[in-house]
Design goal:
alpha/beta, 7 strands
């Protein structure tokens, strides 16, 4: 998982409440079993017309937001079914942070496990970020300082737990956290092999 330190870029304004996971990744994408290659399906039913052409009215098909690194939305972002494909698709598209007034709990937790930073700001702060995003001005999210910064210098602080902050700063997902304990795991297996060797004996298969 890529480390998250500071992200600066265009923020796609989506002034819509209750953007759910089916909007982010439609159900037919759930057959996909890897985290890569999912950007084609991000907001698929809104980005792409039935004939396969881009919908020019959708924000991620417009300049400069087709290169967006962030999304700015309203309350309850990521509600609906608990599909991990939603943060997978966002990450694969290049989105590294979503700024909103609130998030659905499961989606919020899934973001941290997949390299995305969900940022909760006050409604009046989100409104200011939204206006800057609509104007095509860039937004910066600084995880070490826990600040969102606009081009004119306005800053808004946000909260994140120390554990989640540590994981994002170091690019650690659940597997990465486990591998940090590899020496202890090896020591345990060596001790266990000494006292229970039969667990490691492999009889030939007839």
């Amino acid at each position: 998982m890529e480390k998250f330190i500071t992200i600066q870029g265009y923020a796609a304004p989506m002034p819509i409440p209750n953007i759910n996971t089916d909007m982010i990744t439609p159900k037919y994408m759930l057959k996909w079993v890897t985290k890569t290659g999912l950007s084609w399906g991000l907001f698929r039913e809104y980005r792409i017309r039935d004939d396969g052409s881009e919908n020019p009215d959708f924000i991620l098909n417009q300049e400069p937001w087709r290169k967006a690194r962030l999304i700015v939305a309203l309350e309850n972002f990521g509600c609906g079914s608990s599909r991990e494909h939603a943060p997978w698709a966002l990450y694969d598209f290049g989105i590294r942070s979503v700024i909103a007034t609130s998030f659905a709990d499961i989606f919020y937790n899934n973001c941290f496990k997949n390299g995305l930073l969900p940022v909760v700001l006050k409604p009046e702060e989100v409104d200011q970020v939204m206006q800057e995003a609509k104007a095509g001005r860039q937004v910066a999210v600084d995880l070490p300082q826990q600040k969102v910064t606009l081009e004119d210098g306005r800053q808004f602080g946000f909260e994140v737990t120390e554990f989640r902050k540590h994981c994002l700063l170091n690019g650690l997902d659940d597997i990465g956290l486990t591998l940090q304990q590899a020496p202890k795991i090896d020591q345990f297996e060596q001790r266990q092999r000494a006292v229970q060797p039969w667990l490691y004996d492999r009889a030939p298969i007839a």
